[in-house]
Amino acid sequence: MARSSTIDFGDMERDNWNIADKYTTFVIFAHINNLNNYERIAKFGVGEFDQQFQVPEENKGQVRINALRWFMNELEMLIRNTIFAIKYDKNKEQMEIFKKKIKDLRPFIQNIEQVQIDQRTSKRFVRVEEKSFSQIMNILVQIKEEVLPILNKSDLIFKHYDEFDPIKQKQEIIDELIRTGG
């Protein structure tokens, strides 16, 4: 006796694979949050105000440079992880330009690091060449500031809804009924 080969689509219909909300929360938001943290660390050498005395002064240079590298990497990942969902071609092109700018900045990071050794203690520490560091950081922050509105326009940060005007909607229904004689 042959078995009926019917497929129950009920589970598939109920469990629609819309993971956009989770993707926004766990990927996009995580990148943005990390960018904000790395930007703060790159500027101050610590993530929070009350941590400023916990990191020895001789380590802050290395911490700031590492944070700049992480900021750059995180910004690049944010762009790569969202470019597929950008709605407008001109914005996708702009995101590609940002990716290239970030890639072109990478070789200049070596110019911001000055390794020094304390002759007395033989301790190695890194000094930040502030002018180059600031130039690179400013470019990256500017890219971030331009990326966020693009993501927002594509509804990847805040969902945009059309304004609903109930009076206008009611009038459109009445006009349609009068026009069609319904």
Task: Give structural attributes.
single chain; 182 residues; mainly alpha; two-stranded antiparallel sheet; 62% helix; elongated
Helical residue percent?
Answer: 55-70%
Query: Beta-sheet strand percentage?
Result: 5-15%
Order of helices and strands: HHHHEEHH
- Across the major sheet, the strand order is 1-2
Question: How is this structure best described in words?
Answer:
The structure is a single chain. The relative contact order is 0.11. The protein is mostly helical. It has 6 helices and 2 strands; from the N terminus they run H-H-H-H-E-E-H-H. The longest helix is centred in the middle third of the chain and has 26 residues. It is elongated, with a radius of gyration of 26 Å.
List the helices and strands and how they pair.
Elements: H1 10-14, H2 20-44, H3 57-82, H4 89-105, E1 113-117, E2 124-128, H5 130-153, H6 166-180
Antiparallel strand pairs: 1-2
